Amino acid sequence: MNIDKWLVRKDSLEKLFDILKQNSKTIYAPATKNGKVSFIETDSFSGITTDYIQTTQSSKEIVFPRTEKILDYTKNRDGMSVKGIDLKDIPEIILWGVRPCDAMGIDGLSAIFNWDYKDEIYNNRLSRVTVLGFSCSKSDEYCFCTSAGGGPGNNAGSDILFTQLGTDGDYLAEVLTEKGSAVVLLASGLFEKAGEIKKEQFLAEVPVRFNKEEIRKKLENSFESELWIEHSLRCLGCGACAYVCPTCACFDIQDEAHGKAGTRVRCWDSCGFSLFTLHTSGHNPRELQSQRWRQRIMHKFSYMPDRLSVYGCTGCGRCSRACPVDMNILEHLISIQEVIV
Amino acid sequence: MTDNLYMPYLMKIEKVTYEAPGVKTFMLKFINEEDQNRFTFKAGQFGEYSVYGVGESTFCIASSPTRKGYIECTFRQTGKVTNALSGCEEGSIIGFRGPYGNTFPIDEWKGKNLLFIAGGIALPPMRCVIWNALDQRDNFKEITIIYGARTVNDLVYKHELLDWERRKDIKLVTTVDPGGESPDWKGEIGFVPTIVEKIAPSSKNSIAIVCGPPVMIKYTFPVLTKLGFQDENIYTTLENRMKCGFGKCGRCNVGKYYVCKDGPVFTLSQLKELPDEY
Amino acid sequence: MVDFEPKIVAFVCNWCTYAGADLTGTSRIKYASNVRIVRFPCTGRIDYMLLLKAFAEGADGIIVSGCHPNDCHYTSGNFHARRRWIMFRSLCDFMGIDTRRIKFSWVSAAEGAKWADIVNTIVASIRELGPYEDYKKVVKKPVKEVSNG
Amino acid sequence: MDDLRKRAKELLESSTVKVVIGYEQGTANKTRALFVEKPEDAVKLIFDSYCVQNLAVYVTKREIRDKGKMAIAATLPVLRSIIQLASESQVNDNNLLVLGITPESKLVEFSNLAEVETFVHQYQIEIDAHNKEILDKLDKMTPAERWKFWIDELTPCFKCYACRAACPMCYCHRCTVDFNQPQWIPVPSHELGNLEWHIMRAVHLTGRCVDCDACYNACPLGIPLNLLTKKMVEEAKVHFGGYQPAIKGEHLMSTYKPDDKENFIQ
After folding, report:
1. Per-residue pLDDT tens for A161-179?
2. Phi, psi of B236 (to 5 degrees)
């Protein structure tokens, strides 16, 4: 796949933003609120936060919103009229400043949402999103993208990947998809031919901490291991890790009625909650927190690779950052690699 | 099926039959004619039945695929949706999404004896297979049905049990748990596993299909193995909490198998491979 | 808002206020018909969640009324209720819920006139305040197409 | 905190307790909960200014409680939570031993919960100055401004329930939001669902919250939801003279005084 590489001057980034804005595109970019950086609809280039390692939440919210209407119904005298979501209403969105680990997460989501049955709502949202990725020049002890098959400069999932050449240098723009070239066409003046540029030297240093194939093999016969109990003693069973994760796609379907009409809504859910698998009879196949923590790891590092040939983890480390009790997934994966034989 | 996976068919409730305390059977017809003609399913598949404004609930399609023009479902009133469902009368509109899941491999059973073992409210998934087999009766040799419930009143499809009893080409054994019998009860008395042991159907060239509460299944499998049934000839269905029904919402998995996609029908040999998580 | 007819929900206790309202009726005292009365065995049974649900389903004003202290049929129901109302009302005020739209009162079985007066005053004041747009806006926006991060 | 480690080791060796709940070094400069079951692991116990997580949340967690008698390293907020849990009969003397850590970081071992209670009653539940300032700023706003403030703050909430999980007082086996007959609080995290959830949480913690900020520290989005429970602590002071967790004491919201004062009931 030959990626055409362009050079974008440092100060023409703002011009690119304005051109996109003029073309009435909705732009979501990282902005700070309550001391946390999240993707917020932004109108001005100056509103974008730049010195951060990672947003608190992944960009999953844009293609798989936390709450999403899937149908409307109205009861009338002679029956019921039910209307599905009008896929054309889904807005065009530019996702500005997506880290490679988020962009890579989209592959995990797409694998689930297109396993046999095609989820048109998700596919339509994704088709209307243009992902402008920004490589990482900094990382911290939570990041392990290189162990999860990605990297600070990985271009999977991005339509254009910008890599800043040096602290305030110009940007190397790798255009990867038609959506990417559409943006280049829109602002062709800003994209200059780029010579041979070695971007690796400007990327963050992320050491490889484990081998995911090895972990996958070890997980196959570790279902009864004591490790799950030991690791999950301090887990409190909240949903923070699942909701900040770029590849967690589990959802719940709820109905909301207001008088004669109402909606059916799809909203995020987490395997960390005991309600997730509770039967009406009271029986719960996953009663203990250790069983639920095991499900989280097994799904991402064993079931998804087996069934969908894609790992359910991009190594962003968000779940460890967001966890109230410091359940560090990297630490647990390393101990699985060392302890389970 | 429109491109929106989550959009149910609109179904009208044609007939409501009261089966047992808290258990009802709905006969459902598609409101939209083409959906009716285009709709096909196989024995063992399930669907999501929705009451708008309340939610969706998962149970099998209880009518046989050989009977066209309608589908039936039987449910017990336990949760939020089933309570709302049992409040619906004939003529009201509900939603149905499906068919989902895999099927009983009836075609492979041609020329074999069939042993159906059901407990309590688990007769519906079996009834679908039984009628499917009975509608092609000569494909199969001996058909034995062992069906038990807690009390006489809890037996579902009472009228059909009578039909099956009168038929000469089926052996029907109904039982009730000890203490559940009524004075004029002529059937067996005892738990289903003990009755299976007593009847001791031969395992030569035969398939066993077992559905029922987990405790009944747990005690019936060893009996069948003792009678010589091979693990791959014993079929059962698994029940897990479900929301989507097509492998997306991520909650019905047992190990790496999804009950909504790889099930609900499993053989005992498959069950033995599954981790203890159901 | 000339033709705005406020929707008022009244949560009342069965032994005093409901009987009082009944007395209002039998003694032919006219009062605004905007109020929808929900009867409870005691004010102690009136849950704060019901008030929120009333606003969520479109109420513009709420009356919560029961027996005077020491008159409670169950001796302490209204005392417990009073303490809950004090704390819940402070929480609502802190969160910006318009407490002018929630009226708490004691109406005994003999105070038919007082009941009519309470209903009329609250209907008049809510008619002047207008529909509870803020809450309705939150309810109408159940699902943001794409909510921000 | 060597004497904590030494004492923990002794307790485990003499098996007076089956598990010691304390803090250990976590990722980056975070600290996290540690459950010591073997005497030799007691050396991992630490205590420094980063140890703020309220460990009392674990004394009601089934997997820990079923291990047998627990010992817990408890700073002042944790001690308050333990007394509040004791008053709601969740813990008692034969399943919990308390190793107190005073505000001056001195180890004080309590022989029973009554002793813990007398210690806790030396300190009033005080809202810290910074948060008091924010509360005053909010009080000066008009209701419409406060409404806008809270709707903006609560909209990002995605109902991960970390605030519920981290709070020692939220030990219910099945929370009201987990029931669907009736579904009191909408499950989806839209604006109405978030508003009703956070109101319900504040109401259910009224008179029980010990103002330990566990909910705020747990929220991955940094929503200042502890302001709601802090406001209820302040209101309890204004209307009823405040409250202190007390094993045999009355609970603020399940008792009453005939002469409770108010100015809005007609």
Report:
1. 999 998 888 999 999 999 9
2. -150, 175
3 state SS of A81: strand
CA dist B126 and B147 (Å) reads 10
Q: What ipTM score was computed for the predicted complex, to two decimals?
A: 0.94
The residues that bridge with B234 in the sheet, in sequence order, are: B208
d(CA C27, CA C20): 10
| Cα-Cα end-to-end distance for chain B | 31
Cβ–Cβ below 8 Å for D165 and A288: no
Q: Determine the 3-state secondary structure of B225 from DSSP.
A: helix
What is the SS3 assignment for B77? coil
Q: What angle, 0 to 180 degrees and rounded to 10, lies between the N-to-C axes of helices D113-120 and D76-87?
A: 120
- Phi/psi of residue A176, nearest 5 degrees: -115, -25
CB contact under 8 A, D183 and B83: no
Identify whether the C-beta of residue A190 lies closer than 8 Å to the C-beta of residue A16. yes
User: A267 CA to chain D: closest CA distance, Å?
Assistant: 6
Using pLDDT thresholds of 50, 70 and 90, give the confidence band for residue C148.
very low
Amino acid (one-letter) located at B219: Y
CATH class of C8-140: alpha beta
Each residue's pLDDT tens digit in chain D (266 positions)? 799 999 999 999 999 999 999 999 999 889 999 999 999 999 999 999 999 999 999 999 999 999 999 999 999 999 999 999 999 999 999 999 999 999 999 999 999 999 999 999 999 999 999 999 999 999 999 999 999 999 999 999 999 999 999 999 999 999 999 999 999 999 999 999 999 999 999 999 999 999 999 999 999 999 999 999 999 999 999 999 999 999 998 899 999 999 999 999 98
- Whether A24 has a pLDDT exceeding 50, the answer reads yes
Whether D30 and chain A come into contact, CB under 8 Å, resolves to: yes
Domains of chain B: 9-100 (2.40.30.10), 107-237 (3.40.50.80)
Task: Yes or no: say if B229 and B258 are a contact pair by the CB < 8 Å rule.
Answer: no
What pairs with residue B143 in β-bridges?
Answer: B114
Beta strands in D57-121 (DSSP E): 70-74, 96-101, 107-110
CB contact under 8 A, A141 and D27: yes
Q: Provide the whole-model pTM.
A: 0.95
Q: Which two tokens stand for residue A118?
A: 């095609």
Average pLDDT for B227-232: 93
Question: DSSP per residue over C10-37, as a string?
Answer: EEEETTTHHHHHHHHHHTT----TTEEE
- Can you tell me whether residue D69 is helix, strand or coil? coil
pLDDT band at A59 (very low <50, low <70, confident <90, very high): very high
**Chain D positions in Cβ-Cβ contact with residue A232 (cut-off 8 Å):** 63
Letter string b/e over residues B137-149, b meaning 16 or more CB atoms within 10 A of that residue's CB: eeebeebbbbbbb
- The closest CB to that of A234, out of D32, D158, D221, belongs to D32
